[in-house]
Design brief:
- The chain has one domain: Aldolase class I (TIM Barrel), CATH 3.20.20.70.
- Helices cover 38% and strands 17% of the residues.
- It has eleven helices and 14 strands.
- The strands form four sheets. The chain has an eight-stranded parallel sheet with strand order 5-2-1-12-11-10-9-6, with helices on both faces.
- α1 packs parallel to α10.
Length: 313
């Protein structure tokens, strides 16, 4: 596994996502203005990368609108030099052809890329809300009882090819051990070349469970497959966010936090902003491992990113 020469930690903040709905937390940013403001505040708190989804500005429903992506990215760039990483995951029920459009539209430094298909069950969250703000929310969550988040090998060839064509570096999201083998196949086929930046996504209902043992297992498989040709960031969904990210930090890996992955700051206490979560993981990184947030310059050098001036926003 590759690590920064300085030993510093790359903190990514995923500010809104397509998992949680507005009724689950009043602090979830949904409008372009709110999403951009949270990106800027997360950067000021220590995040080098902000992972961006967009939502309908009136209802907060996850969408893949290129104009909204551009509006968010432009607003952020006016105030911050943070690395903007748009999703190509979109809403999990979106077609891959629709999700990848953001790359040629924005020409970003980074984007996400999901490395395999899984069941993607959000329906357990239905039990946590008695009164919904919008009619689409319970319907959206209930629909995931039959949802397959599609990322076939054919899809991956197209998506990785599009990402490479535009000089963008993908964060390769692996929701289970099999996705690491999918990625290895993509390397063998020449669809992507090392060094790789891999992100373990742990705790999604349909993917690998969020446990310390599973994190160690996933890393052992990644080490066997990719040796010193990959860097690693870790995502823990829900209440396992901070246990898994602190474990990752202690292992020399990088960490992602944010309201996409977890709405809480601690048990029973909603996070009031993404910046709160960034501040917490920055404090934990220093206290448990003596690691400071990596600077934007060293992250761009380490990941081999294009010049921000080459983006389309």
């Amino acid at each position: 596994m590759r690590t920064l020469e300085s030993g510093n930690v790359i903190v990514t903040c995923a500010v809104t996502g397509a998992i949680h709905t507005p009724s689950l937390s009043p602090h979830l940013p949904t409008t372009p203005e709110e999403i951009a403001e949270d990106c800027i505040a997360a950067a000021e708190a220590g995040a080098a990368v902000v992972h961006v989804h967009v939502r309908d500005r009136e209802t907060g429903e996850p969408v893949n609108d290129p104009e909204l992506f551009e509006e968010v990215a432009t607003r952020v760039r006016e105030e911050s030099d943070v690395i903007i990483q748009p999703t190509t995951g979109g809403a999990p029920d979106s077609a891959p052809e629709e999700r990848i459009e953001v790359v040629p539209e924005l020409e970003p430094e980074m984007c996400s890329c999901n490395m395999g298909s899984i069941n993607f069950g959000l329906y357990p969250m239905l039990a946590s809300v008695e009164e919904w703000e919008y009619d689409w929310e319970p319907e959206y969550l209930e629909s995931t009882t039959d949802l397959i988040f599609r990322n076939t090998f054919g899809d991956l060839e197209v998506m990785l090819g599009t990402i490479e064509e535009h000089g963008t570096v993908p964060s390769l999201e692996c929701y289970d051990v099999g996705h690491l083998y999918n990625l290895s196949h993509c390397v063998e086929q020449g669809w992507i070349s090392p060094p790789l930046h891999i992100e373990f996504v742990m705790g999604i209902h349909g993917g690998i469970g969020a446990s310390a043992e599973n994190l160690v297992h996933m890393k052992r498989v990644a080490d066997d497959l990719f040796g010193e040709e990959y860097s690693l960031s870790v995502i823990g969904a829900g209440r396992n966010q901070f246990p898994l990210t602190t474990q990752a930090i202690s292992m020399g890996a990088q960490a992602r936090v944010g309201l996409e992955d977890n709405l809480y700051l601690e048990r029973g206490r909603l996070a009031e902003s993404n910046a709160e979560q960034v501040e917490k993981i920055v404090d934990l990184a220093w206290s448990i491992a003596g690691r400071e947030p990596a600077s934007l310059g060293e992250v761009r050098d380490f990941l081999g990113l294009k010049d921000p001036a080459e983006t389309a926003f």
